[in-house]
Structure formats: C-alpha cells, structure tokens
Description:
This protein is of the alpha/beta class. It has one domain (19-321): Aldolase class I (TIM Barrel), CATH 3.20.20.70. It has helices spanning 11-16, 58-67, 94-105, 136-153, 167-177, 198-204, 224-236, 250-259, 270-281, 287-301, 311-321; strands at residues 27-34, 40-43, 46-52, 71-77, 110-115, 128-130, 133-135, 157-160, 186-191, 240-244, 264-268, 305-308. The strands form 2 sheets. Strands 1, 2, 3, 4, 5, 8, 9, 10, 11 and 12 form a 10-stranded mixed sheet that branches. Strand 4 (71-77), helix 3 and strand 5 form a beta-alpha-beta unit. The longest helix has 18 residues, at 136-153. The radius of gyration is 20 Å and the shape is globular. The protein starts with 10 loop residues before the first helix and ends with a helix.
Amino acid sequence: MNRFRRLRSTDAMRSLVAETSLSPKDFIYPMFVIEGENIKEEIPSMPNCFRYSIDRMDEILDEINESGISGLMIFGIPAKKDELGSEAYNPDGVTQRAIRHIKEKYPHLIVCADVCLCEYTSHGHCGVIENCHIINDKTLPLLAKASVTLAQAGADIIAPSDMMDGRVEAIRDALDLNGFENVPIMSYSAKYSSSYYSPFRDAADSAPAFGDRKTYQMDFRNSDEALREIQSDIEEGADIVMVKPGLAYLDVLKAAHDTFNMPLAVYNVSGEYSMVKAASKMGWIDERKIVTENLTAFKRAGAKIIITYHAIDMAKWLKEEN
Length: 322
C-alpha cells in the first residue's frame, strides 16, 4: 500500500516536502494616486484600499517598504479627462509626478507603470474613439508616448494593459528610440473582459461611458486564444507576460507557464480581493487562510510575480510564520 500520509503527519513534515512556497518578493502592490492635496480616501468597494494624493503617498509607501515586497503598480487618476486621454502622456501628469516622488524617496522599490488610456479619457475606453468604435492603430502612438513619459519619470517596468493589437511593438520601438532600451515591458497579454474588475473601475473612475470592452479585452470562454496573444507579445518584445484576472483563469496561467519559458505574472484583481474581504467581514471565512491558499494557487500554477491588493498583509503574515 502507498502511504502518502507519512509525509503529512506533522506541520514540520508537510513544510519539509512542500512543493510551493510564498515570499514577500513575489508580490507587487497596486496603488492609486489622485490629483489634489491631503487626500486619503478609502475605496468603498475595496476595504482598506485608498486613493492617495502625492503629498499623502508616503503613508502607504512606508508600509510597502517595510513589508519587504518587491514594489508597486501605479495607477493615476487625473483631475482633467478628455477624449484622447492627454494626461496619460503629460510629462508632468499626476502619475509621472508620483513616480518621480517614489523613486526619489524609495529608489530600491520596483515601480511598474500601468499604461492605458481608460483612467484618462472622458469616455472611459482604453483607446481613441471614432463613431463609437475604438480605433486600434490611432491608439498605439498615444500608448507609446505615455510609456516614454513614464520611463522618463523613472518607472522601472512599463506595463501596457489596454489590449490593443501591436501595442508592445509600438511601445518597445518608442522606448528604444528614446534611450530606454533597458526598461522592460510587462504586458497584460491575456487580459480578459471580466466582471471581476468592477471595484477597480470605482477606484480608478474608469468605467466606460458607453458599451463595454469586449472588442479588445479577451472573451472569457477562450483559452487557446490566450496562448496566441502571449506568443504575439513575446514576438513583439515583451519581457514579462501576464494573465488577468487570476482565480477564474488558473488553467490559462498554467498553460502559459507550461508553454512559454518566460517570466509570468498574474493579477489578483479587485473583484477577487473584495469578495474575500466581504466574506471575511461577515465571518464566513478565515481571511488569512483563504488569501494564503489563493496566492499559493497562483504560484503553484506558475506565476513568478503576483500583483495583489493583499500583498502587504500577506507579507506580514509570512514574517509572523518565520
């Protein structure tokens, strides 16, 4: 008889043979910076997540620094929005100024700069609009321009999330042309059109004013297509590829890991976070145990980088265990 239980007999024995482990260095914390002064406002649908003005950012940056996680993913919310999302590529925009502040005070933290137009456009879509259609090729130069300004501000990683075809190549070319050939691109390669994003759209004030994003974000019924998207981004010059969301897409994450010898990221998105928080508040689950299990599942499926709103809490829990 095979006695698998021999290796499960004690916690020490289970830890000895564990195939997967988490480290604070696995995590990137998403944070929101908003135009204005003396602002720290909790996001109603995301308990314990806040929007910060630049002058209040040090409160969360100190926590990130002390936690030992690798860094952060920054999202900016400008005071002004227009049809072309011009604040996304304003060299003195809120996101660019926030990055300069972070790199001045915390130069060792990795700053990933999300690149998309949705937070900056008056219509909330991720690209240029003509006759209610998103125009792919007219969007690419704007994404490239935004990427250059973010690299100039000091971003360590450029992370396009818009899902326009060809944007990785356009961004790579623009970065190289402007002397940023050593700045890597982490592409949201397999980003699905998902209902799990709703709290984020509250946080970033980025809900589309009309229609939806199904013509550019992926259909959640497809998995083979995700591998084609990832392959294309790799060919265009992506250094890291990402699957988003996480929990409902572990099959895609595992397939990406098994298919491509590339650094792989996963985004544990706002809806996944908020569901855990809501159930925990009701006393229905043990938050710490559930979060540990969820994040371990991402790592087990092959993610090397986990972008999660639980990052700071998980890092603290890991330190308590050691």
